Amino acid sequence: MRPLLSFLTTLSLAAPLSALAEPGSVAATSSARLAALEARIAMLEAELAQRPKDLGAYTLPTGISLCGQPVPLDRPEVRERVEREFYLMLGDRDQVVLWTKRARRVFPVVDAAVQKTSACGDIKYLAVIESGLRPAVTSHADAHGWWQFMSPTAREYGLAVDEAWDERADLDASTQAGARYLRDLARGFGGDWALGMAAYNTGMGRLNRAIDAQGTRDFWALDLVEEAERYVPRVIAAKAIMQNLQSYGFVLPVEQGYPDEPVDIVDVRIDGARVSVLDAARAMGVEARTLRRLNPTLADTHLPTGRSFGLRVPRGQGARVTAWAQGGGRATRAVEAAPAVTPRSKVAQRETRATEKPRAHTVARGESLGAIASKHGVSVDTLRKLNRLGGRDHLQVGQRLIVRR
Length: 405
Hints:
Lysozyme, two-stranded antiparallel ribbon
């Protein structure tokens, strides 16, 4: 490409285009073609400049910090650990693009929580590492949601977690909890955010034991399990890349990512009868998939009962849903009507369930965990816990699953 451009430049110097471009002449036609070719070459060169370079052409920014604390890249071992995560992320460019697109709707929520809790703004990159900025991710250890909270810690920080409603998947509530938890962890280590983030991953007790045994509070000097040692460098690498996207060949600014969807939030309370998400969506005039997508906190096939909760619906549907909720939240059909329960009737209910409802299910060809959960009126999360299934476990035909205790 360059030799051709040099030849064209030499030609233009030897015979200026203006001198050759007499109207109607052969030279004028050639001049027009040459100008078009030069424009095409310029466009191709611009495209080539935007294509990803060899990874070795990229370097970490100088003076990188984490929560205002300098990362000691002058220590060869530290630089190597951070560069490992840095180059692995740059090699997975599709994932970085998706992170950037999701960041448009997630990062402002994190920034607002940081202001309220006096946490560190860099925790947004920890959320990138934890969940990829997605609400419904569940780990093999049953950590769940945007910040991958375990259930006990989530409840400790004020999040509602039960079989029907799981606020670990609520962006606003879980982000407030995540910011406070990370702030508290960092304070527990004297304001050291690297240690605080490491504790978020590996547990405060385990990290304190390592510190006591090894006699150092320098995160970079601690001998930890590999996952914990890689965790903080991954946060740093995500920050380095996402704060300098154009420097690493990404032309998509965060502002062009996925926007927030306009919604109405309706206070709903279901008492007496269980209502399935599908029936509720039908009665509200909302697609079931839309209702679940806007409300990832819905953790079961049925709406929560006996408690108030805020239900997000598409903008403009609020009045209709409010009318439905004020009418008692009755759907087109009610499921499992619940009579008044006395201590004696509870025993009777258990005996009835034991005789009328199966406690196990044999997997048939083509069945998914979601379909089995829906069939037996339990959540997918419950099935996973009862059968100790991880997020990547696959069902086998003939496999026997426990569906209730």
